């Protein structure tokens, strides 16, 4: 049962709309069982769920990296097709989703950190001055300035994660998806990532965070969505969803270690 705990007034075309999204892998594994979800522009949504609940698969479908077995993704009403021309136009409109991978190694293409960050701005066809401006800003925002000349493969796990975030910042994607953004990060890394998330929110970007670590970030989210075994089982204001947690969903209520949702951040 999908417990819909809050509903925005309808009418307008939603910014992102997922309808009936299903994913069955060739081995018969049914990873997503018909997900309906709409997200408004500028929302910060936290998507939680136990290991294997379908978070990464869902976000790969939303960012166009993976084909769904059924259902549709629309961005501003426009059907997302896995087609290069479609991606280029979405990118130019600034509404393509930038996904920071759970395992960022596969994401790096540049010889150095600086070159890697520049790939997005180059692909966007920006002039050199704007490319440089974005790369320098992303180096600062991610705390990687000292590593600008290093090879991405030589970075530590946490530094790789910072680099993945820097690449997305430099693209200035309209939708930013962070898959387990706190994995491998030390305390300053978590604080820096939270600052990046706050900045994205202030700039009006739509931010989707996939994580188990609710206690680090829930205070920044306007909505909490829970996936369980490939189904969306509950969504709404964080407080209301936490009040209805079921033990079978495999989520720990972060209020056990914070005095309330507002304290659930390391910022
Ligand atoms: N390429 C694949 N082939 C077969 N099954 C897959 C494939 N990729 C993912 N799955 C399965 O889909 C389900 C959902 O996986 P997904 O990676 O989305 O989980 P998740 O919620 O992101 O988990 P985690 O918290 O561990 O990151 C899992 O059962 C997984 O084994
Ligand atoms: Mg995952």
What is the secondary structure topology, with strand pairs?
Layout lengths: L2 E2 L11 E9 L5 E10 L4 E6 L5 H8 L7 E6 L2 E2 L4 H9 L4 E4 L12 H11 L4 H15 L14 H15 L3 E5 L7 H16 L3 E5 L3 H4 L5 E6 L2 E6 L1 H6 L24
Parallel strand pairs: 1-11, 4-9, 4-10, 7-8, 8-9
Antiparallel strand pairs: 2-3, 2-5, 5-6, 10-11
Helix pairs in contact: 3-4, 3-5, 4-5
The site of magnesium ion has 4 residues, from helix 1.
Summarize the structure.
This protein has 267 residues and is α/β, with parallel strands linked by helices. 31% of the residues lie in helices and 23% in strands. The strands form 2 sheets. It has a 7-stranded mixed beta sheet, sandwiched between helices. A 4-stranded antiparallel beta sheet has the order 3-2-5-6, covered by helices on one side.
How would you explain this protein's 3D organization?
With 267 residues, the protein is an alpha/beta fold. It is 31% helix and 23% strand. The protein has helices at 55-62, 84-92, 113-123, 128-142, 157-171, 187-202, 214-217, 238-243; strands at 3-4, 16-24, 30-39, 44-49, 70-75, 78-79, 97-100, 175-179, 206-210, 223-228, 231-236. The model has no long low-confidence stretch (mean pLDDT 88). The structure holds adenosine-5'-triphosphate and magnesium ion (MG). Adenosine-5'-triphosphate binds at residues 25, 27, 29, 31, 49, 51-57, 102.
CATH architecture: 3-Layer(aba) Sandwich
Could you give a short account of the major beta sheet? 7 strands, mixed
Q: Can you give the mean pLDDT?
A: 88
**Any idea of the CATH class?**
Alpha Beta
Individual helix count: 8
